[in-house]
Amino acid sequence: MWIFCLLFSTLFCQSQAQNQAVLSRSRDSDGRCLYTFTVASPEEASCSGSSTNPQIDGVLSRLSALEGLVGRLTAGGAGGEENLQEAYSQVTRERNQLQQEKEQLSRQVQELQKTLADLNEEAETLRQRPCQETQTSGGVWHENRPASDPADDSRNGSYQEMKAEVTEVPASRFIPEGNHSLTGCGDLLSVGNPVLHRKADSITGKYGVWLQDPEPQGLFYSNKTVWRVDAVGKDVRQLFVYEDMDQFSRGFPVKVLVLPEPLESTGATVYRGSLYYQRRRSRTLVRYDLASESVASRQDLPEAGFHGQYPYSWGGYTDIDLAADEQGLWAIYSTSKAKGAIVISHLDPTSLEVRRSWETRIRKKTVANAFMVCGRLYTVGSYTAANTTINYMFDTTSGEGRAISVPFKNKYGYNSMVDYNHGQRKLYAWDNFHMVAYDVRLGRVSRRSS
Ligand code: CA
Question: Hey, what domains does the chain have and what are their CATH numbers?
Fold first, then answer.
């Protein structure tokens, strides 16, 4: 438009200078503007015909073309703006719709997560039911079976009688009966070959402890969560958390918790949403709540040796070994009063106070490790021999122990931790950088075998 004005003003000034120019404007048949200048010729006395100045005609022609162009641009600009507004409105509508769909999907995910958690909890309850036992006022342990279950012989006391028979039968006579090798408590019949799940990639993983919670509580973690502590070092505080066994095997922790008090050795265990461990250079037991990530309780284990007084045969300050099984939380250790023999204490899992203790006749330094299954202590003969045995069993129900011989393999030659998980029915072990698990078979003995 400014070009148009410039040309116009130039021509106007020129016409003023000649003082005889007349400008007129009209439209042609196509609706375009036509500008006409009439100038008296200084040389010709009269105008012959209707001839016009070709330069003026050219200027007028260009002005007309320019005005048409401006008109088209103006019209096009208005249309483009409308198109942009329409496109913007459409994008806004789509964005709002996507937002609604996202919120709906989020609600569905939350509902599915809640359903999954409920199902896991229910499955865990069902799986635990055959192994749950309750203690009567008389101190006798019973299996918690439905009243209609024909296998429930606890009411007439024959169950206790059967357990007494177990202790009298050599290990070679053990045979599984029915489904008792898959569910419920029983004697340890056999241990499978070690299955490798992860190999540590630094010296801090020479020995350590790895676990899954057999009875998880709350929604923070599940029985699939894997917990790992590399136990080499003087200030062991890092607790690695893995979402599941697959992530554990890949070496991708979901988080790392830092324990407020350092841990010693490989005797820690995870049970009902807490990590239980021995505080470094002390007989103090610590319960670390995994949901709140804080110490929930601590308690000294009375008279327990620590920091090298009564370790397992491989050393490593394995004086106090904590274990969980179908009957609760246990401590495996020794005292000067017991003169190095293994002492077993049943602990209150909340307060860590000792409920009851048993003294065995096997020296702690002569065995490589120990674990609890169904209220029974089992010891491993060697931590280095490729083919060793589980060589001793002590039954806290009868208060009696005896030698047994269940084959056990140390595939990698330096087994520093063995712990039983009754939820998975497996032994978890840390064998010379290798984190392995063993299937176990439980069963009942039968006098029919001979
Ligand atoms: Ca152990």
Answer: 10-25+35-40+55-74 (no CATH), 188-442 (2.120.10.30)
pLDDT band for position 97 (cuts 50, 70, 90): confident
In our burial notation (b when 16+ CB lie closer than 10 A, e otherwise), range 9-36 reads eebeeebeeeeebeeeeeeeeeeeeebe
Task: Give the model's confidence band at 80: pLDDT under 50 very low, under 70 low, under 90 confident, else very high.
Answer: low
Task: Give bridge partners of residue 371 from the DSSP assignment.
Answer: 378
Distance 369 CA to ligand 1 centre (A): 5
HSE at residue 243, side-chain half, CA atoms within 13 A, is 5
Q: What does DSSP assign to residue 204? A: G
CA-wise closest residue to 238 among 251, 256, 253, 212: 256
Query: 397-415 burial by CB neighbour count: b if 16+ within 10 A, else e?
Result: beebbeebebebbbbbebb
Q: Is 235 strand, coil or helix? A: coil
Average pLDDT, the chain: 78
| H-helix or E-strand spanning residue 257 | strand 255-263
* Residues at Cβ < 5 Å from ligand 1 ion: 321, 369, 371, 418-419
446 Cα–ligand 1 center, Å: 29
Q: Which of 360, 407, 359, 361 is nearest to 382 (CA)?
A: 407
Distance 321 CA to ligand 1 centre (A): 5
Residue among 429, 424, 423 nearest 371 (CA)? 429
Tell me the CA–centroid distance for residue 320 and ligand 1, in Å.
9
Residues 6+ apart with CB under 8 A from 336: 303, 305
In sequence order, the 6+-apart residues with CB closer than 8 A to the CB of 37 are: 11, 15, 21, 22, 23, 24, 53, 56
Query: Residue 164: enclosing H or E segment and its boundaries?
Result: helix 158-166
What is the phi-psi region of residue 295: left when phi exceeds 0, alpha when psi lies from -120 to 50, beta otherwise?
Answer: beta
Distance from residue 203's CA to the centre of ligand 1 (Å) = 21
Q: What is the pLDDT of residues 297-315, one digit of tens each?
A: 999 999 999 999 999 998 9
pLDDT in the model for residue 271? 98
Q: CA-to-CA distance for 5 and 55, rounded, in angstroms?
A: 18
